[in-house]
Amino acid sequence: MIMAPVVASSIQFIEAALSNGGGSPFGLAYSDPNQRWLIRKDLLSLLQEFPSFSLSIDTFFHNDGTSTKLLVARGSLPISGFSAPAVPVTIWLHENYPTVGPIVFVLADPGCNIHPDHPFVDSSSGLTSTPYLSTWSYPRCSLSDLARNLAKLFSKDHPFWNSQPSSGSAAHPTRASKTEALDRLSGIIHYDITVLRSTVDEEVQDLLGLQEELCARCAATSRIVRELKSERADLKGKVRELEREAGRIYEWQDSLNLEPAFTGSARRDTEDVIDSVFEVDGEKSRLILDCLASERAIEDTIYALDKAIEIGAVRFETYIKQVRVLAREQFQCIDMRMKHHEEITSHGHAPLS
């Protein structure tokens, strides 16, 4: 970097740097004589109003990778309105200046970083983009006007402090210039967008959580549906099996040549029809079957008496008397059945279970 000699005045440095354009020892990119004259005038105006600025020549690297030597003005912008530190800035004069506006960077101190939500200064690089720079138009715009605009802008919204301007703090439209009103409006819109983005991010996170829950529910529902389909298939298989069993029972019934229990108005003895279906091996087997039927009938009767005593339908004395009688009869049935079993077993027949 080539700095102006300490003994040389700023005017002499500007004259030396812009003397022969691209043919000068400094190798600057400003080749047009009229362009160099306009740059000289704007720089002198800037130094006259902001004497703390110093001039130098340095190499600037564009985003496309190309590099060029440009004039650089470095200095600190005084901040008014509250006890805040001055803002150090670097102003690069583009090779097509003044047709193209300058490139401005805010220099952050190691112990004082640019706050991340500033509307006009990028917190990582310090690149500054204000409405004044975005709407740059020569001859309406100049370096001194830019410096004044930056000083006013940073007084309202300091790059090192998070001091968001409110809409109520804006000056009355008749007392505020168009540029100031545009700056304040841009800042307010930026902070509103920041708040809205934060709210939207929270809503997106909530929706993502809801989506995850819905996906889990969908997976659970799909699993239940698969289980129900499997269960339905099993039930269909059981139905087919029962249908086959019913078919075999119908075939067996047909093979017995049984007449219907009811034919027209003529009623037949249903018990005789049912008894004729089952065959017993001898009189002893029939007696055993009768004993079993009597035992089951007595059990059912005792169960009905239990329910009756629970609801108070019979007196307790009657209940005890009937249960004793039924228990005696059941014991006799069991004893008779066991005797018939022993007789059948002694003759070599399998007992009826």
From TrEMBL:
Keywords: Coiled coil, Endosome, Protein transport, Transport. It is found in: Endosome. The gene is LOC116188934. This is Protein ELC-like. Residues 20-164 form the UEV domain. Pfam families: UEV, Vps23_core. It comes from the Eukaryota. The keyword Membrane does not apply. Residues 282-350 form the SB domain. GO terms for molecular function: ubiquitin binding. One of its GO terms (cellular component) is ESCRT I complex. It comes from Punica granatum (Pomegranate). GO terms for biological process: endosome to lysosome transport; protein transport. CDD domains: UEV_TSG101-like. Belongs to the ubiquitin-conjugating enzyme family. UEV subfamily. InterPro entries: ESCRT-I_UEV_domain (IPR052070), ESCRT_assembly_dom (IPR037202), SB_dom (IPR017916), UBQ-conjugating_enzyme/RWD (IPR016135), UEV_N (IPR008883).
